[in-house]
Amino acid sequence: MLSYRRKKPFAMSTSSIKSCEIDEDYYSRQFYAVGSAAMSNLTNAHVLVAATSTLGIEIAKNIILCGVKSVLINVDDSNQVEIAHKKLLKLNDYVHVTWASEIVNEEFLEKTKVCVLTNATFDDQIKIGDYCHKYGIKFINANTKDFLRFLSRQIFCDFGENFTAYDTNGEDPLTQVISDINYNEEDTFKINDKRIFDIYEIGGIVTQVKKSEVINFRSFSDSILNPEMLCFDFAKMSNAANLHLLFQLNKRWIELFSKTCQGDLCAIQTVIGGISSREIIKAITGNFTPIKQFLYFDAIECLPENMSQSNLSLSTRKSRYYSQEIVFGEDFQEKLERSKYFLKIKSKVAAEVIKIINSDITINDYVENFGLKTEEIYNDHFFESLHGIIDTSNNRKTHQYIDNRCVYYRKPLVYSGTLAVKANTQVIIPFLTECYSSTDDSTNTLVPLDCIANWPFVIDHTVV
């Protein structure tokens, strides 16, 4: 008998749902990114999230926004439900959201396409993982508790045997103009039987036929003994193996763990929540290659190099930043609270929501565009008062202009951008890294669809 017991039972609550037909206007940006077949699979999928922490709530938020048919959130803290309940229900009227604190057993799992476990005990990870593998339920285990909690995370995926990835990379099929056909054996690529064609004369286009890939996954219990790990950072290739062995081979990590294991960082919860949510979409749709099978993420370099000798001031106060102060110390938090950054986003509403989330933050709204015409607003006084800039705009000209301003005023710049399912980030620090405009390694001339639809600023955006 399978059981995964919760501690505090409370009443279940559900959201109302609209028609099950796909609203292409509502999901327009996602529709273009994953395709109609994937959206159809998503809107018919049932997902179970065992949300024992903020990580589980983060994952639930993401997949509700993606538009699955239903999400069952299994929690053990009624206070957590009271806080998150109303906000999650308002995210997407097309998704049926259910809360429960009952035992996770066969009755829960048999209706589920994907089971996501967060911060469960090791015994429950084995039990639930093996059950899902046996009965063909896609299983994702996201862990921020048992290992190096402060700046490291673990994700495990088991999508069963003979899982088919229909599109392994999400790229458009390659097309080429035919210049000649070689009838010898040595070809650039092969055609099944060229003898059925007449002698080539002129013209023609060849289009790549993308092949699916069948992937076999092992259960969680088998993978613990014989792990397959995806390298997250090639500069730290040995870290994943050490993390998997619970740091028995690395005395420095044991020391770091003992100093900061009770800490928790929202930023890293967001990273792992986002990656886990993407794996859920892969499990449901078969789009893109899933993680096979462990992924370990760490950001240990954020800590002082000589932490054992550093004068890190441990947290002595209970505040909303307590778990962050445990990792970095009170001095760091006080310095962070004095920092002033300019965040370039596209929504005045978002600024208002930030004020609601954290009333400690002072926010000044600017609706004027960034550029030569507004340098009277974004003048010397404006830049000299900043500690740095975060740029999330969707066009290269704006990036270059902001980069030039940051170089001139010697300000750090964090650039982040997206294009469909792709994303990139660049951190630019004066006198330490190259600037954004130093290189142009982008060969993609596509324009983001959200820019075309909502913020067209050149004539190219009106021709699709």
Offer a quick outline of the entry.
With 464 residues, the protein is of the alpha/beta class. The protein contains 16 helices and 17 strands.
Give a written overview of the molecule.
The chain has 464 residues and is an alpha/beta fold. 32% of the residues lie in helices and 16% in strands. The chain contains 16 helices and 17 strands. The strands form 4 sheets. The chain has a 9-stranded mixed β-sheet with strand order 1-4-3-2-5-6-7-13-12, with helices on both faces. A 4-stranded mixed β-sheet has the order 14-15-16-17, with helices on one face. It has a two-stranded antiparallel sheet with strand order 8-11. The longest helix is centred in the middle third of the chain and has 20 residues.
Keywords:
17 strands, 16 helices, nine-stranded mixed sheet, four-stranded mixed sheet, 464 residues, 16% strand, single chain, alpha/beta
